[in-house]
Amino acid sequence: MKVLVVNPAEVRQLLLMNECIPIMEQALMNLGRGEGINPLRPVMFLPEKVGALGMMPAYLGEPPAMGAKIVSVMPKNYGTKYDSHQGVVLLFENEHGSLLAMVDASEITAIRTAAVSAVATRLLARPDASDLAIIGSGVQGASHLEAMLLARPIDRIRIWSKTGSNSQLFSEREGAKFTRHIEVMPSVEATVDGADIICTTTMAPQPILMGDWLAPGVHINAVGSSIKSTRELDTAAVVKSRLFVDRRESTLNEAGDFLFPKAEGAINDDHIQGELGEILLGQIEGRKTVEEITLFKSLGLGVEDIASAFHIYEKAQQSGTGTWIDWSS
Fold first, then answer.
1. Per-residue confidence at 85, pLDDT binned at 50, 70, 90?
2. Is the bond into 63 cis (omega within 30 degrees of 0)?
3. Are the C-beta atoms of 303 and 36 separated by less than 8 Å?
4. What radius of gyration, in Å, describes the C-alpha atoms of the chain?
């Protein structure tokens, strides 16, 4: 038996953003139909919570695959040569449980997370939304810029990050990549002022986006926080938004952006309007009015990683990309 190994550069070659968006739509719909299994992820925190190791198992009936992402989360890597998220996705076939592939998880995470935000933006942002604000200039900030350009006809782009020099570098690098002017802003408040779409992609442990700053009709993709002890949005921002999620169970157990306002008594479980998969399946309605504020709280799901890895596996076989290693008993 041979197993495929796919490195980061090969993932970027095989998992294109415009291909990943419909793959994420299908994975979310399959999960909504009950054709997938996505248990809560166990997380092992390092001493003093300086980092964590997360494990995300999942199963999909279509495409027929199962597996797990194992990823380290190291917030102190921000600003260094190391990604904050590093790991591997292990892909297995469903019939005999044989290992098919080991795929770099950092690039899958970067691409599929933004692709799901693009799905949310297409479902929830106003059709004419064109003013984009990105908070955070790291990997997710860059991937969300690409995804938002595919989701809506963006005319204006603003960027803010904690380190001003990183914002300037982001503006120059991504501006050249997409032939777009990207404005570097002095504060979060200035960045989101009047924005139609806001993407928060930071490692902030405390709220950096305040409800008082949100314009009517804005759509927010809250991406940066994936654990219950941190949040990017203050309580007011969550309260005044119609909240949609990737998975209810995950949100109720893992999302600090939801759990902090709930603990304060500002909202309850009914504040969750529904899952993206339910909108895609026509089971619930997304945006209802031009003026309402919509919020997608992203946590990331194992089924998204498995669907991405399966797509990579199939394309790698067709193109001869990747390295095959002997895995015989």
1. confident
2. yes
3. yes
4. 19
Checking if the pLDDT of 79 tops 80, the result is no
Say if pTM beats, i.e. exceeds, 0.85. Answer: yes
- The CA distance from 108 to 309, in Å, is 8
Helix (H), strand (E) counts: the chain: 11, 16
- Nearest by Cα to 309 from 298, 322, 297, 299: 322
Residues 237-254 as b/e (b if ≥16 CB within 10 A, e otherwise) read bbbebbbbbbbeebbbeb
Task: Give the model confidence (pLDDT) of 121-142 as tens digits.
Answer: 999 999 999 999 999 999 999 9
Residue written as token pair 């009709």:
217
Q: Report pLDDT digits (tens) over 139-172.
A: 999 999 999 999 999 999 999 999 889 999 999 9
Q: Which residues lie across from 129 on neighbouring strands?
A: none
Burial 145-184 (b: 16+ CB within 10 A, else e): bbbbbbbbebeebbbbbbeeebbeebbeebbeeeebebeb
Q: Provide the 10 A C-beta neighbour count for residue 23.
A: 19
